[in-house]
Design goal:
Chain lengths: 211, 211
DNA sequence: ATACGCGATGAAGGCACGTTCACTTTCTTG
DNA sequence: CAAGAAAGTGAACGTGCCTTCATCGCGTAT
């Protein structure tokens, strides 16, 4: 019998060809999903960009959601693989942390498009158009940011905050410092948010360089 | 002629009643939008929760998008108003920064539901279900986090990183430190991402407490 | 050369949902 | 109290889009 039992490590030519084709489709899907949200991206657009028909797309993936998951997963895998690489090259904790931070910058410098997917993978967010925001809301947002920049500038001028970083970057970092804490809180709904506050204060103080 | 010219400062009873009703509808809409994304939230659900018909909803708001904008705008306004309050009470830059951070915690402790809207307003993100993520992707995410926690713990044990904060919180802060920089970069597409890296490194060093 | 099988195709099905509008109910006013 | 205005209603409409499936084209084996 022509029992085509293959070496399980080495998939057949057919199999490899399939994986290659799937990869091309994922490329196209990544491009489309990166441009908008999951809901707004259309299967037809993806099929067209991949130069296959919608039917074929559904032969390769069970559903739009399945396709999206695969795209995000692949992008995330690529990202983390490279981070791990850097981590294993780096010696000592400080160097390792620097490697992680640096690689974030390098990665999105190269694959700028993937940023939306990255956010989706790490936080469960999806992008929406900024234009969804009221112009009033935009204005308030800007006003608040300016206010915070001024405060940081004052602190530095008065020698209370450590110098060495532009005031606007410092301000933006301060403003987004609560976010990771809030995300942690949402993740484990057992903990009380307020118990995290002291730690957050410690972290801002470090950012500002106050003892 | 019964020219009902009103004192422009004091709207008519009708007008005030309308505003009150609009407020109730916004409450309902906030609840629904906070539960899912803009795309997934349905106008019918909102109308039902507000105990009005879909038609009435469309008498009050031009479109679903208009409604969403109003909800976000109102939530954001409430948030910023209170922050400004705290800011004006606080004396000196450090106290002001502390006030801002503290209020983030207080606010979402009280209005936990608004978190999604807050993110939407500040970053232009929308939430998606976590379940959209591959289980593999989840695992990778977790693995990376654990790796980073270990590194932070090592650093603290070796006396390289400053103590005083749980290793997991430190790790999460390190991991999300690049985010504000990336958002700044996306906002002003004129700048080169890599020019921001040195500042990011400075900020991590401060977070870690290395000189 | 012919028959067979497997993947590709895209038009049609079906559904979900935003929006409208003719009709009804409620309120106002003379 | 009646007539007219204003506001409320929800069924119907239109649109967009995911998914399916009968059909087709092409390579392979006999």
């Amino acid at each position: 019998m022509s029992d085509t039992v293959q070496d399980p490590k080495k998939p057949s030519r057919k199999e490899r060809e399939l994986q290659f084709r799937v990869g091309l489709v994922l490329d196209a899907a990544e491009e489309v999903f990166a441009e908008t949200t999951f809901a707004r991206a259309s299967v037809e657009d993806i099929a067209e960009k991949a130069e296959i028909s919608v039917g074929t797309l559904y032969n390769l993936f069970r559903s739009k959601e399945d396709l999206y998951r695969s795209v995000v997963s692949r992008a995330q895998e690529g990202f983390f693989d490279r981070v791990q690489e850097r981590l294993s090259e780096a010696r000592g904790p400080l160097e390792k942390v620097h490697a992680v931070v640096s690689y974030h910058f390098e990665h999105f410098h190269r694959y700028a498009r993937q940023f939306r997917l990255y956010v989706s993978a790490t936080n469960g967010f999806q992008w929406e158009l900024r234009s969804m925001l009221d112009s009033e809301a935009m204005a308030r947002q800007m006003q608040f940011r300016t206010r915070l920049i001024d405060i940081c500038q004052d602190g530095m001028d008065q020698g209370i905050f450590k110098r060495g970083v532009p005031a606007d970057l410092l301000a933006i970092n301060v403003a987004s410092l609560p976010h990771p804490f809030l995300l942690v809180w949402l993740e484990r709904d057992t903990i009380d948010l307020m118990t995290l506050l002291p730690h957050a204060v410690t972290m801002v103080d470090r950012l500002l360089g106050v003892d």
